[in-house]
Amino acid sequence: MHDTKDHAELSVEFNKNESRVDWHDETLWFVRKKRDIAVSLVPEWEQLRELGSQIKNHTLSNLDQYLEEFEKRAIANGITVHWAADAEEHNAKMLAIMQSNNVSRIVKSKSMLTEECNLNEHLLKSGIEVIDTDLGERIVQLRKEHPSHIVLPAIHLKKEDVSDTFFEHLQTEQHNYDPQYLTEAARINLRSHFIQSELAITGVNFAVAETGGFVVCTNEGNADMGAHAAKVHVAVMGIEKIIPKAEHLGVFLRLLTRSATGQPITTYSSHFHRPRPGQQMHIIIVDNGRTKQLGRPDFRSSLKCIRCAACFNTCPVYRRSGGHSYHSAIAGPIGSILNPNLDMKANADLPFASTLCGSCSNVCPVKIDIHQQLWKWRQVLAEEGYVSGSKKAGMKGMAYILSHPTVYRVAGKMARWVLTYFSSIVKIKSLNPWYRQREMPAAPENSFRQWYLKNKQ
Amino acid sequence: MPVIDIVSRKNFSLTDEFMLAVVRVGAQVVQVESMEALMLIHQLAGSKQYIINTLPALGEVDVSGIKGKDAQDLQGVYQVWIQGAIGVAENGAIWLGESSMINRLLPFICEHLIIVLDAGNIVVDMHQAYSKTEIDKEGYGVFLAGPSKTADIEQSLVIGAHGARSLVVYLIDKEYKKAE
Amino acid sequence: MKVGLFIPCYVDQFYPQVAIATLELLERLGCEVVFPLNQTCCGQPMANSGFSSMAAGCNKNFVDNFKNLDYIVCPSGSCVLHIKEHLHDGNEIAAHHIRKSVYELTEFIVDVLKTETLPSKFPHRVGLHVSCHGQRGLHLSSMSELVESPFSKTNKLLSMVEGLEMVQPARWDECCGFGGTFCVFEEAVSVKMGKDRVKEHLANKVDYITSNDVSCLMHLEGILKRQKSKVQIKHVAEILNAV
C-alpha cells in the first residue's frame, strides 16, 4: 500500500539528502531535454499536438460507441473481451482466467493499470506470483517498492542500488555497477521466465475501434517475449485507451515516444489483432472511476492522457520530491488531477503540490490543460471540506481584510511595524516556515499609497 | 471526426534519411544492389550457428516447421533473417507482418536480427506508413526500430534488453552502386 | 493616454520602489497615471488556495476601483493573469471590461505604447528570471517547451537599456518555486527550487537578478540574503526607469 503521509511531509523527507535531490532532478531534466531535441526536429509538432487532442476529445465524446465497435470487432478477431467496473472486478477476472487455465508461471510487461488495481498484491494472496519483466519494474519488484515514474519505474534508484538488489536476488557480482553487466544479468534471468511462461499480461497503449486490435509499445521487447511464448495472453486497458481508426495511430505514435523519452519511436510497436493458433487472447477493459471523471466537465479531458510522463519530467516539483511523495500509482502532475477523482480525501494534497507554473500543460502531447485543472481541483477540494480548517480560517480572514480598504491599510502598516520592531517574533523558524531558509523582506516605512498621497496628490 | 491534414515532407532523399534514422536507433544498415548480391552475404553467414531464414529468395524455408516451434525450441536461435515490408524515414522503423516472420517469436527471441528491405518501400513518416499498411490484415504485426534496448538503470543506454541484441538492415537499392 | 495603476498588495506594502518606478516610467512614456486609492489586492491568494468562493468582496472592491479605465497596468504577470482569468462580479459588464483592459507592464509598453527607445541606463550584469504566469499565462515570451519562434517582450525592452548586460541561466524558464502559499506549505521543495535558480544565476556572476514579478524576486532575495550574497534583486520596472 502507499504512504499515508501527504506530499508536503514526504517531500521534506525526500529533501533531506540534497545531493540526491540534485541527482534526481538532473536525471529527469535530462529526459526533458531529450524530449525538447526530438520535438524540435518535427516542424509540425504543435499541429500534431492539436490533432492528438482533437482525436481524443472526439473519442471521449463518443466513448460508448467506440467501445462497442471495438468489442464487436475484437470478438470477431477471436479475442475474449471482459469488462471490469473497478479494480476489484479487474483483479477477480484476471484471477479467474488464471485459475480456469490452471497456470502458475506468469509474466507481466508494464501496465500502470495493474499498478492502479494493485494486481500483484491481490494475486499473491491466492499464492500466484507474477514476474514483472520491464527492467525498471523488475528492479522495484525485487526491492518490494512501488515504481516512482510511469515510464521509468526505477528512475529514483542509482546503479549502486540496482547492483545491491541484483547481488541479493540474482547473484550478480557484488559492487559491479556497470549498467551493461546488470542488464545482461536481468536478460538471462528473465529469459528463463519468458520461455517457461504460461500466461502473459500486457498493458495497452492504444486500442483501435475500427480494427478490434491493440498496440503495445516497448523498447525492451518484454511484452512480445511474454505474449508470443505464453499460451494465454491477457491485455488490460482503461476505457480511455480507445482510438477510432488505425490512421490515428500515426498521430499518436509520433507524439508518444518523443514526449516520453525523446526517441522518435519505441523499438517495438506491436499490433495485436488475433491470437496465434492454439493461443487464447483476452482483453480486460476497466472503468475504475473513469466514467466518473468523464462526468466532470472541468476534469474529463484528463482522460486524454496517453501516459507519456512528459509532465513528470518537466515538473520542477516532481523532480525535487520524487514519485513516491505522491503516494499513488500515478504520480506527477497528471496524477494530481486523476487521483482526487478516485479518492478526494486521500489525495486532497496533490493539486496543491504545484506552483501552477504551467510547464506540464505545454509538454502534454494531447494538450490537457493540467495546470488549469490543478487550480480547479483546489476549488472543489475547498468546497468539499478537504482543505484544512486553519487554512480556511486564514483565508477567510484574508478575504475580509482585502475587501475592506481601510482594514487592509491598517493590516499592512501593522505587518511592517511588527517586522521592523518585533522581528524576533517573526523570526521563529518553528512558527514561520518562510524564515527557515529565507530572510524576511525589508519593511519600508511607507507604503506606495502613502508615497503617492505625499508626492502625487 | 478530426481530419489528419499533416502534409508529409517532400524533396529529400528518403533512402539517406531512413539510413540515418536506422543508425540513430542503434542498428546497422547496409546497401546492396540486389537480392542476388545479398544471397552471397547470406551464404557467407555460415551454418555453424543456429540460423533461421524466412526469405524464400535466400534459401529453402521450412514454413510449417518454423511455425510449429515454441519458445523452448527457439531459445538458442542465433540469427534470424526476415523480410521487411515498409521502412519509415522519420524514425527508422520497419513493418514486419506475421506472414514474413512466420513465427511471432522470431524477431524477439534471436540474438541477432537481420531485416531485408527494398529501398523502394521507404515512406516519409508514420502517416504514410499507416496509409500503406493494413494493420489487421494479419493477426500480428510490428513496427520494429533497432535492436532491443533499455535506459532503466540511471538513464544509461544499454543495447540488448530482452529482444535481439543487434539489428542489421540490408537495403536492396537498385540505385546503389558500390564504389569501385 | 490615461492609465490606471494597479499595484500588487505586497508591492504596495513591502516593495514600494517598484510601484514608484512603474509610475515614473509610465509618465516618462507620456501616460497620465492615476492610482485608484482604495485598491487592495487581486484576490489570488484566496483563489489559489481553493477559496475563490471567498473572493467576492475583494473582486467587488477591485471592480469599484478600476471600472472606469480603458487601460489598467500592473508590474506583475501573476496578478494580471489572475484578473484576466478569474475576475467576476455582480457588475459583470464592468468585470468583463476590466479583464479586457488589464496589462502587465512590459506587455503594455511593447503592445500598446509600441515604445522603440528608452533613455534608460543600467550598466550592470543582470540575470533574467522568467516568471511563469507572465510567460506561460500572458505569453510575454516564447516558451522552452513549445516549438515556436523565440521572442520576449521583456527582453525587447531591456535591450534598449544602455550598458545593460543580460544573462540567461541554463534553465531559462524554470519556475522559482514561490507559487503563493506553496512557499510555506511546501517549504522544502519551494526553497530547493529557489536555491537552484539562485545557483544558476550565481554561476553566471551577475550583479542583479530581474523579473516581471516581485513575488519571484522576494523569494529569490530571501535566499540570496540568507546566503549573504551580494547579488541584489531589481524589478524590470526599476531597470527600465533607471536614467
Question: What's this, in brief?
Answer:
With 457 residues, chain A is α/β, with parallel strands linked by helices. Chain A contains 23 helices and 10 strands.
Task: Characterise this structure.
The complex is a heterotrimer of chains A (457), B (180) and C (243). Chain A is α/β, with parallel strands linked by helices. Chain A contains 23 helices and ten strands. Among the domains of chain A are: 247 residues, 3-Layer(aba) Sandwich (Rossmann fold), CATH 3.40.50; 66 residues, no CATH class. In chain A, the strands form two sheets. Chain A has a six-stranded parallel β-sheet with strand order 1-10-7-4-2-3, with helices on both faces. In chain A, strands 8-5-6-9 form a four-stranded mixed β-sheet, sandwiched between helices. In chain A, α19 packs across α20. Chain A is globular and about 90 Å long. The model of chain A has no long low-confidence stretch (mean pLDDT 96). Chain B is α/β, with parallel strands linked by helices and 180 residues long. In chain B, the strands form three sheets. A five-stranded parallel β-sheet of chain B has the order 1-11-6-3-2. A four-stranded mixed β-sheet of chain B has the order 7-4-5-8. Chain B has a two-stranded antiparallel ribbon with strand order 9-10. Chain B has one domain: Rossmann fold. In chain C, 47% of the residues lie in helices and 12% in strands. Chain C has a four-stranded parallel β-sheet, with helices on both faces. A four-stranded parallel β-sheet of chain C has the order 6-5-7-8. In chain C, α11 crosses α12. Chain C has two domains: 111 residues; 116 residues, Rossmann fold, CATH 3.40.50. Chain C is globular, with a radius of gyration of 17 Å. Chain C starts with a strand and ends with a helix.
